[in-house]
Amino acid sequence: MNTSIEQIKKEIAVDRQALLTHPLYKKVERLDQLQLFTEQHVYAVFDFMSLLKTLQQLLTCVQVPWVPVGHPNTRYLINEIVLGEESDVDEHGVRRSHFEMYVNAMQQLGASTAAIAAFLEDLKKGMLIQEVIKKHVEHPKVQAFLEFTFEVIATQKAHVVAAVFTFGREDLIPEMFMNLVKELSSSHPEKINPFKYYLERHIEVDGDHHSHLAIEMVTELCGDDENKWREAAEYAKRSIQFRYQLWDAILALI
Q1: For 219-253, what is the HEC assignment?
Q2: Is 96 helix (H, G, I), strand (E, B) or coil?
């Protein structure tokens, strides 16, 4: 593997391990606690999709008339990820984005989707994302998590967005949490199974195939530019720290 990628992994290792062993995972023991978890975590699924589509905008042509943009291999990498994230199949074989799959799983769980629905409705009306966050997201640490994401997007630096997307969003579900969901599923199968499917699909697709594509994308975007690698490492580290704060917020609510 690229030595600069290894260096980023080394720089974020402590923060990443802290995230994977966050006390939140041991506190989600009941269905009502899992419902509370999803009502806040859904914003992380939304922000993942926002980072993804920003990369597609930066690395491919999404305007008409079309002109070739960027490097063909980088275009392939991001379009391959978009295909899987925006039009995967749910447990019934129905095409859905991973976000829509998650919201559907929330509904099956009995979690409230009112806040995220109102959040999206105001975005569709053209309200600025910063205003929507302040209006609909109550906990300051959840607000800060989302504001950081859109600070990253505002840089319009593809290598920065790709680093946050790759190291701050992928492959961050510990086995402990999966075991808990499996235990809950055994007692509430009709409620938990769609969420269990989402997590398993996320690990299968995002944690394996897509993570390799994303690392290759960061490698191509940073190239031999030491400044880009330095920025990529800095933002990757910050993204994990903001995710830790998100977990803190959910733990406090639970």
Answers
A1: HHHHCCCHHHHHHHHHHHHHHHHHHHHHHHHHHHH
A2: strand
Asked if the model's pLDDT at residue 170 lies above 80, the reply is: no
Cα distance between residue 92 and residue 47, in whole Å: 25
Residue 89, beta-bridge partner list: 95
Question: Is the pLDDT reported for residue 145 higher than 80?
Answer: yes
pLDDT digits (tens, 9 = 90+) for 25-53: 889 889 999 999 999 999 999 999 999 99
What DSSP designation does 169 have? S
CA dist 81 and 52 (Å) reads: 8
Residue 88 pairs with which residues in a beta bridge? 96
- Beta strands 95-96 and 88-89 are antiparallel
Distance CA 171, CA 202 (A): 9
Alpha carbons 198 and 179: distance in angstroms, whole number: 14
Task: Give this prediction's pTM.
Answer: 0.92
Tell me whether residue 141 is exposed, middle or buried, using C-beta atoms within 10 angstroms of its C-beta: 0 to 12, 13 to 18, 19 or more.
middle
- DSSP secondary structure string for all residues of 108-127: HHT---HHHHHHHHHHHTT-
Strand, helix or coil for residue 2: coil
Distance CA(214)–CA(85), nearest Å, equals: 13
Cα distance between residue 46 and residue 168, in whole Å: 14
Three-state DSSP class for residue 60: coil
- SS3 at position 67: coil
Within the chain, residue ranges assigned H as helices are: 3-20, 24-27, 31-59, 72-86, 98-109, 114-124, 129-136, 140-155, 158-167, 175-187, 189-201, 211-222, 226-253
